[in-house]
Amino acid sequence: MGRPEGAPLGLTSFVGREREVTEVGRLLASHPLITLTGAGGAGKTRLASAAALEAVKDFEDGAWWVDLAPLSHPDLVPQAVAQALNVPETPARSLTDAIAWDLRELEILIVLDNCEHLVGACARLADDLLHACPGLVVLATSREALGIGGERNFPVPPLSVPEPDHAQALESLQHYEAVRLFVERAKAAAPGFEVTEANAAAVARLCRRLDGMPLAIELAAARTRVLSVEQLASRLDESFDLLTGGNRTAMPRQRTLRAAIDWSYELLGDRERIVFRRLSVFAGGFTLEAAEAVSTGGDIERDEILDLLTRLVDKSLLLAMDWDGEARYRLLETVGQYGQERLQESGEAEPVKERHAEYFLALAEVAEPELRGARQGEWLRRLDEEHGNLRVALGWAVEGDDAELGLRLAGALERFWWARGYLGEGRGWLERGLAARGPLSVSTRAKALNEAGWMALWQDDLVRAVELLEEGLASYKDLRDEPHIATSLTNLGHAALHQDDRARLKALCEDAQALRTRFADRWAIAELLVFLGMAALYEGDHEGATVLLEEGMATFRDIGDTQRVPICVTYLWMAALEGGDTGRAAALLEEDLRRLRSLEFKLQIQVYDDLMGSAVLAALGRQPARATRLWGAAEDLREAIGLSIALWDHTPTDLGAQLSALRSHLDEAAFDAMWLEGRAMTPVEAIEYALDAEETASSAPSGVLSGRETEILVLVAEGLTNPQVAGRLYLSPRTVGQHLRSVYRKLGVPSRAAAVKEASERGLI
Length: 765
Fold this sequence. Notes:
By secondary structure, the protein is mainly alpha-helical. Among the domains are: about 20-155, Rossmann fold (3-Layer(aba) Sandwich), CATH 3.40.50.300; about 170-265, no CATH class; about 270-345, Winged helix-like DNA-binding domain superfamily/Winged helix DNA-binding domain (Arc Repressor Mutant, subunit A, Orthogonal Bundle); about 560-700, no CATH class; about 705-765, Arc Repressor Mutant, subunit A (Orthogonal Bundle), CATH 1.10.10. It is built from 37 helices and 8 strands. A 5-stranded parallel beta sheet has the order 2-3-4-1-5, sandwiched between helices. The protein has a 3-stranded antiparallel beta sheet with strand order 6-8-7. Helix 5 (about 120-130) links the parallel strand 3 (about 110-115) and strand 4. The protein is globular, with a radius of gyration of 30 Å.
């Protein structure tokens, strides 16, 4: 049975709660929204994880986990859900609508964990999705209910504890969940620990004193390494009388947990306390290197940090886990919130938060050039893991008094936002930073304006894109920054094209012609040449475009810019196609496709352009089946990435009409079959198919299943759930569900298990 995709790993066993897991499972089968409520440390997350693990088998499209604890802004809630589900942004609809569209036909469970600080945003999103998606069930955890129609509130009770003033036989103590949890965690801390006649009463008293609160019990159990149960119970009695006395307005179990964490904190050494407080600035975990950068200072030396982290792990205040062979640490949410309070009280919150933000700014600025090179996949995964920390750093800087740091960070992440399809989030941080208080350098502001404008352009917000890009261009002119002036002109040229503003495009070309004679920077001159070539192409001057583009490409090659050369190649094959030189267009397309094939992270917009070009060449070469497959693959990719504007939109030749004419060369059934075969291809398969120049039986997708269907079914056969398959292949749940339902139809079977069996017997997997 699979774990919900994205759910926290169970680093320790789940003790008790059998009745609650059963009851929540029953509610999941009959209600669209169940909210587990309770105080921090009551075990809401662990119960949600256990219940979802049991229920996942009842949802054809799986269960998906969304941790909201690292978020600080309500606008990020739809972003977090979309990112967890691999739902792409699309300019044609809001992100909430995009999620709803993706889930509308699915039977799926979504767990929204830690909603309490974003209750309003969670309630709105859940309400919208549940109304649009009849097969959706939401399981939320929060300290308060979401308060929308159809919600079923499930208060999470404490673990069962022995009755007070009632002698308990030794063997009967194990019937109580709190005792079982304490004993299991105590044995983990002190392997020789046992419940005996001598300490049984103390164990019972301690579990009662802690009100059956799981987190409080785990903190106490960690101390059995150095204290006997009798000492623990005695010291807890004394400490709780003192620590809970000043907080009479809190609920009893909240006072209990607060006192337990207080007590555990007071038992730390001075240096352990300092590091514990400082670690609370992290969100979603951190590495040793990050802990050293943020926690070092004052009397704490860098070489002490590892030992102090180890001590905090031993005392159950910090979790340690393995991430790609590297140790990664995490504070439980409730413990982290307590640490933040203590950090604020210490008077060093701001310098610690500043060190945190500076560390992640440095990481992002190292990643920025790497995201354009051979290690881009590795760095994208690194930034994925640190997404929570990046958001915290951005929030502190952009919403605080260091807009300069915040915009430098958001600007350095531009390629990350772009590659992962997080254009809305990236643009949001950039625009908030531009509107924030605090001084900004002209260069930082100009970069932010240009990147926000470029993202607005691809979101089809053309008016705002032009505003941002024009202001950015003016700033770069003030700086006399030739390369960025050239880039801003190019971006504005794209905007003018998509607004069909030919007069504006002509004026920009005149500026570019004048600047290329005055600029000294060779890269900037080459960029202007490519811009002028692009404009000439769209004006129908394919010969003039070719001359300009070849000159620009030669310069980029000479100075070693491997990122700009492919852009030139794309425009050049388009110019060749426009000019009727199909042989040159085919050669250039092959060059570009082979380069794309070698990249670990595929540049999806460029894949789309090349597939469309390959489809047109096949149509011109009277290969209608091949052209239809390539066209289908291109359109499926365009839909998947939410691409609303493309290089094809303003070329003089109506290439779409050429492709539409394919229908006259194939009967309706054949066209539909070829189109669906193309849509079933992965981008990698489509590239391979496009590179096979001959339309032969071997070049068409082989077998009863498409390559993507086979790939998915192989993973299903390995025991992966739908969410795990989607996560492995970076697909949305809808896409996986569509492919599996196609497999069922083709094989004539009703289920995943039957599909695996049938495909195995036929030798298809």
